[in-house]
User: Fold this.
Amino acid sequence: MKNPWNIIANLKGDRAIWAIVAFLALFSFLPVYSASSNLAYLYGDGDTIGFLMRHFMHLVLGFAIIYGVHRVPYHYFKGLSIILMPVILILLIVTLAQGTTIDGANASRWIQVPFVGFTFQTSTLAAVILMVYVARYLSKINDREITFKESLLPLWLPVGIMLALILPANFSTTAIIAAMTFTLLFIGGYPLKYLGSMLLLGVFLLAFFVVAAKAFPKAFPNRVDTWMARIDSFTDEGDTEADYQIEKAKIAIATGGVMGLGPGKSVQKNFLPQSTSDFIFAIIVEEWGLVGGMTLMLLYLLLLFRIVIVAYKSPSIFGKLVALGVGLPIVFQALINMAVAVELFPVTGQTLPMVSSGGTSIWMTCLAIGIILSVSAKREEIRAQEEKEEKEEKEMNPLEVLSEAI
Assistant:
């Protein structure tokens, strides 16, 4: 019998996923500690230990989330997604209603958690809940034909409301959630004709929102001008802060070369904004070189491979879909973060999962990892039960075997 206080012995699920996530977390201390020197001098007394300890506490709580969630049978998440969907919609409304602006642009992304004193980005939690909710819906309709009218209220209405509430303050997160939702619906066998129709409708509504925001700029806070500036910057038509960020990121990457300058020896960390979060990959390549950057990318691709394996081996449709639904966005976000640093993608503000500093990002990534491990743990239980039954059959004496056969 396992000791309930022995945490290591009570770990369940895919061991490779545990190892990858643990390695990413341990590695993250090096670039976060190095890159936080700029923040320490700008917003503190020059001491980076405080930033490192904050990152450490975020990771400790994150792994506590993984451990707690992965011990919950994954089929429980079906009901939880239904219960939490209206809750997260209310939180998104409260977040948007704050009307927080920075330089006239909508910045209502966080809410203050009462009695605790830290802020929480509601859209990241909304993304995980929505993926579980969509996976539940797809598993429910898996064995029958579905009409668009049937899926309008239970599927598209909550999806549409959630995206509409996140869009004014955070286009990149809205785009990622929408892309992952459509990807999951495609994988889950949702009719392509309905999927295509909703995609066209979404593009039309987005265009309408942009036109309305440009026509009536003072009607409601939004970030349309910020989006346009970033796109102009990406196409070399603008001169914005995004240009400065990308320029410094490319200098950092070019300086790193093949082997890098060495841990803690980055120069651009002193000039690059968001060096501990959005652009931490540039600092990693500067200090660890192309070798470090490629190794990090391979780790995320290996994580993707293990997520697909977990989904493939899951005994239920919901298990397959929920593992992919919460797992694919992690890898997708990581690749986007890296693509932004090398100017293959416009500046999005997306962090590098499990590596960048930031509590909400780490915790929601850990929540998703916990769900994936819960799915893989169920498969391990089934396999263990099958091995036990097979062993018992072999240990049966000939008379028992004969009686069983009769």
Summary: The chain has a mean pLDDT of 84. Residues 8-381 form one domain.
